[in-house]
Amino acid sequence: MSILIKNVQLNQHPVDIFIDGSCIARIGEGLSEKAGTVIDGNGKAVVPGFVNGHIHAAMTLFRGFGDDLPLEKWLNEKIWPYEKHLSEEDVYWGTKLACVEMIKTGTTCFNDMYMHYPPVLRAVEEMGLRATLGSTVFDFFDDDFAEKARQQIEKDSILPHDGRISFSLAPHAIYTVSGATLQWANDLAKANGWLVHLHLAETQTEYNNSVKNFGLSPVRYLHRLKLLSPRLILAHCLYADEEEIGMLADNGVRVVHNPNSNLKLGSGYAFRYEEMKAAGVMVGIGTDGAATSNSLNMIEAAKIAALLQKGWRNDPTVVPAEEALRCITENGAAILNINAGKIEAGYLADLCLIDLRSSAFAPGFNFVSNLIYATCGDCVDTVICDGKLLMENRCLKGEREIVEQASKAANRLMTNHG
Fold it and tell me: 350: closest CA among 49, 51, 130, 99?
């Protein structure tokens, strides 16, 4: 498959982009390559597709359910009692609904953590997005649970995968997974070349309980278990001091900041982005699940991340718009070991066309500033992932059915188990 995009704005210059197969083949002016699909880029700008570094895709089914509660109460009283009744069909439609929202707002790749792995895989394969899908591990410090988790991982890991999709291990958190199981997951990931995706240091309560139960803060606890490595992706990591940030940097650990979820749950706001960047920690941005952030819009997440840093530091110069955009493109791709996040020949053809006719881009003094600070996801006109056209002129095939089926699944779940 080949695509030729004509006269699109790249860094405020009109260019043509030729996509051959899954990669960007050429960028220049007046390209004449024959292509199966030709897209008129007039009035549009091209940006890399956004990378959502931490999400629970199927939790779109819980959007607006259990709002305005602290994390521990939200999990124990609103989420876990219903999640245990989720069917594979529920998870399938919830994941497809998430994919719809992500495509419509420019996300081409995401890092997922959820249960019922097979229907998540099936949904993502059908929707055409790129993803690292985490098979979730819980053991609740119980040997029987641990054995069941290991058996499930074995089944999940041998499922056939599309080339866009990679497998990872996703132990939930240090308060739901024992040290022994965390070490088992790390060893298995190392042997197979998989990433490990883990919640860590998300709340003050988690931090305090870690000190109480393990005698160490969350990061130091992982260090003692010898889990810190370039394979590890930590979601949240709000509570980390200077020494711990040094530990993360020395071991190549990657971190994903989830500003909307952290704010909404009251988990904290003083994410130490500048300190992590200075130490050499790769930082990306995620939305978390729609049950906590309500939105899977990465433009919104990037804006809030930038504004938060400026606000709590009393410094308007930190995290300018260009840096926020890098966090959701180049950084996100690097965290997942994907050759994407840039509009350059040789990179994967994961990209979006932005409609410059949107009122948010007038006047056009600074495209990136307008994209991050002024727009919302409805400026995304066209989405291409892995060299395939997923959405053009904001038309996404099957959107209405997916929204209806996911809504039915969510309502059925709440009605039958409320």
Answer: 49
